[in-house]
Design brief:
single chain, about 120 residues, alpha+beta, four-stranded antiparallel beta sheet, 3 helices, 4 strands, globular
Amino acid sequence: MKAILRSGVIAVCLLLAACVPGPEKAGELTRVSMQEYFRYDPQFRGQGIEVLAVRVTGGHDKQLEGVATIRHAGQSHEVPVIIVLDRVNLAWFAQPGGLAFLARSPADADRKTTE
């Protein structure tokens, strides 16, 4: 009886472990999430921000470290990100100041509203 129970527990653990995406899949899921954020957030919408790739560089368990390559105004920028994921949810966080290149100057904001 114990052997059957132990085998069942091991099988469930292996099945659940298979649900957590690998680094490449986690990077792609994060890229899509970031792109959607920049596409629909009023602060960034219409700026032509393109998330080219997210490469997972380390981490463990539910918290990964990565680097996002973001194109804006004709230039590519490497942005360190933290990716938190479980079987259902994904969240990403740019390092402090990592998205500073996306900030519009007041002159840019004025020009955008008068065009």
